Amino acid sequence: MVRSLTHWTKTLSFPARISPNKQREPTLTPTPSNNSVASLTTSNNLNNNNNEINSMMNQSQTSLLSEVNQIYSDPESEKAIMSSVVYCIHHKEGCKWSDELRKLKGHLNTCKHDALPCTSKCGAQIPRVLMEDHLKYTCPQRRARCEFCNKEFSGHGLENHIGVCGYEPIYCENKCGVKIHRRHLSQHKSGECSKRLIPCRYCAKEFVADTLAAHNVKCGRVPVVCPNRCDINLLAREELDTHLKEECTISVLACTFKDAGCRFKGPRFSMENHLEENCRQHLNMMCNVVTKQQHQIASLKNALSRLSLNYSGTLIWKISDFSAKLVEAKNKEGMELVSPPFFTSQYGYKLQASLFPNGNGAGEDTHISVYIKILPGEYDALLRWPFAHSVSFTLFDQSSCPEKACNIVESFIPDPTWKNFQRPSKEPDSLGFGFPKFVSHEMLKKRHFLKDDTMFIRVKVDPSKIVAV
Ligand SMILES: [Zn+2]
Ligand SMILES: [Zn+2]
Ligand SMILES: [Zn+2]
Ligand SMILES: [Zn+2]
Ligand SMILES: [Zn+2]
Ligand SMILES: [Zn+2]
Ligand SMILES: [Zn+2]
């Protein structure tokens, strides 16, 4: 029974067959064909198969080779095969050995790349060349000392010990930069580490240890003494301001009547005394303040009324509750309504209209009378006298339909000889000039001169003839 070479060359390949005529250059390798005749193949195949061979040879080099012997009972073939030149099965790992196949077994006994069971019987197969390292560093059965605590362990024990050895120097996890034996780490972290969190003893907030001193410099709860050395012992720094402003008996204060002019300054405890003893002075100061303020108010009022003054030369005068005013006028002789003053221009004549609801002079009891008078104004010195501009009075018909409205208008041009239109003195003329019989009471009831018991009278100075500066 001849087993095909194909069967086992799947696991065992050969390097080059070295021709006696050629140099020993292992470029070609015999590979059996189906009919058991070796054909040639490249040495790459050898390499590809080496791992497989390796494992196989490790397990059963001897049996394999003897099997080869059995297979090739033909002594000629066997001789030829066994004389084939092959590489060591560990060629790829670096073994340079190459010789006849028959010598491979002998070589493998000494090949430093060949694997042997660990001599410490840990069960691993270790290449001969690595055995020393294995026994020293990786074999679980080895005896080894921890480099930090110097205790002896089995290899396995050491692996468990690494990472927990109390004598291994390690960096503090808080990144404080300290390297310390593991067994001292927790003590370091709780008591010494510059990056541990500790609460401020005053405000109880937590701070990294090495920033606590900086915090204490500004912590609001740090107790301080009052700079005035008053009878308060200690108070929190953040309360000091309020204490000095509102409580400290030694703080020097200004008298509460400072704004009224009192210049007294003294410690808080003396203030009550000062106030009691200076009642009259303080009262006088307050009176002065009030007087001053009254003047200010008056001048403000003045300025305000200036802003709201009418400088247009035209006054629209609204007279409401007319019937009540008429009744009053009938009972009270000479009752006169006066309009707000108005100006012909900003620097012009100051004028005022007046109205007698129950008439005046020729119109008494039957008509309403209207007049205009000239009041003393600020710019009179620069204006032309006598006043020479035409003045018109208009009573508006308040009909809701403006086209149908029919106003009553009266106007006059002052005669230069009328004394009412000379420059007024400080005591102005009491009457002025106008129309005693402006509109009769009868006429007032007609049309819509009165609406909602209100009348509107326009007093207009013809602006075209105004001569102002
Ligand atoms: Zn070898
Ligand atoms: Zn071992
Ligand atoms: Zn240790
Ligand atoms: Zn630390
Ligand atoms: Zn604090
Ligand atoms: Zn104080
Ligand atoms: Zn005072």
From TrEMBL:
Task: List the signal peptide residues.
Answer: none
- Which stretches make up the MATH domain? 312-461
Q: Where is the composition biased (Low complexity)?
A: 33-43
Q: Mostly located where?
A: cytoplasm
Q: Tell whether Zinc is among the UniProt keywords.
A: yes
Going by the UniProt record, its keywords in alphabetical order are: Cytoplasm, Metal-binding, Repeat, Zinc, Zinc-finger
SUPFAM superfamilies the record matches:
TRAF domain-like
Enumerate the residue ranges forming zinc fingers (TRAF-type).
107-159, 161-212, 214-272
**An example molecular function term from Gene Ontology annotations:** zinc ion binding
Question: Which regions span the lipid bilayer?
Answer: none
Q: Name one Pfam family in it.
A: zf-TRAF
Q: Region labeled Disordered — which residues?
A: 16-43
Which residues are in the TRAF-type domain? Answer: 107-159, 161-212, 214-272
Q: Where in the cell is it found?
A: Cytoplasm
Q: Which GO terms describe its cellular component?
A: cytoplasm
Please name the PANTHER family in this protein's record: TNF RECEPTOR ASSOCIATED FACTOR (PTHR10131), TNF RECEPTOR-ASSOCIATED FACTOR 4 (PTHR10131:SF94)
UniProt protein name: TNF receptor-associated factor 4
